[in-house]
């Protein structure tokens, strides 16, 4: 259980760091197209290694939820890389889809770790 707890924490941190980079990028009015692409790709790269660890360590429910969150965040990355700004409806919609998937992932993680059970 300790291994999963650490992995889940690390995975959430990795997603959060990437998401914060995309937020900054979506507010950056001065980055060139090549700079945007590079920043977006570099910011998301660490998530791939964590994704593979999740695929072999997480419970089935958590892994499935993690894949959805990963893909939704990848969509946000693609929007930020393409120059979509934070105020754009496409970006805010993509962000909302990711936030929903992230919420589902955290719930699945808590269930798997037994963290959502009320104390007796």
Radius of gyration: 15 Å
Q: Please state roughly what percent of the residues sit in beta strands, choosing from under 5%, 5-15%, 15-25%, 25-35%, 35-45% or over 45%.
A: under 5%
Shape, principal axes of CA atoms: elongated
Distance between the termini: 20 Å
Low-confidence stretches: none
Q: What average pLDDT do the residues reach?
A: 95
CATH topology: Four Helix Bundle (Hemerythrin (Met), subunit A)
Note the total helix count. Answer: 4
Q: Structurally, how many domains make up the residues? A: 1
* Number of E strands: 0
**CATH architecture classification name:** Up-down Bundle
Outline the biggest β-sheet: none
Helix share, percent: over 70%
Structural class: mainly alpha
How do the SSEs run, as a string of H and E? Answer: HHHH
CATH class descriptor: Mainly Alpha
Word description of this protein:
The protein has 120 residues and is an all-alpha fold. It has a single domain (2-112), classed as Four Helix Bundle (Hemerythrin (Met), subunit A) (Up-down Bundle), CATH 1.20.120. 82% of the residues lie in helices and 0% in strands. The protein has helices at residues 2-27, 33-57, 60-81, 89-113. The chain is elongated. The mean pLDDT is 95.
Summarize the topology.
Elements: H1 2-27, H2 33-57, H3 60-81, H4 89-113
List keywords for this structure.
120 residues; mainly alpha; 4 helices; elongated
In short:
The chain has 4 helices and no strands. With 120 residues, the protein is mainly alpha-helical.
């Amino acid at each position: 259980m300790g291994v999963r707890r650490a992995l889940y924490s690390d995975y959430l941190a990795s997603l959060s760091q990437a998401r914060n980079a995309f937020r900054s990028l979506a507010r950056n009015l001065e980055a060139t197209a090549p700079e945007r692409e590079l920043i977006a790709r570099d910011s998301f790269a660490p998530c791939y290694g964590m994704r593979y660890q999740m695929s072999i360590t997480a419970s089935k429910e958590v892994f499935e939820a993690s894949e959805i969150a990963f893909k939704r965040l990848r969509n946000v990355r693609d929007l930020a890389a393409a120059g979509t700004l934070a105020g754009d409806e496409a970006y805010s919609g993509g962000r909302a889809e990711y936030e929903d998937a992230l919420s589902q992932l955290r719930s699945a993680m808590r269930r798997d770790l037994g963290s959502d059970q009320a104390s007796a």
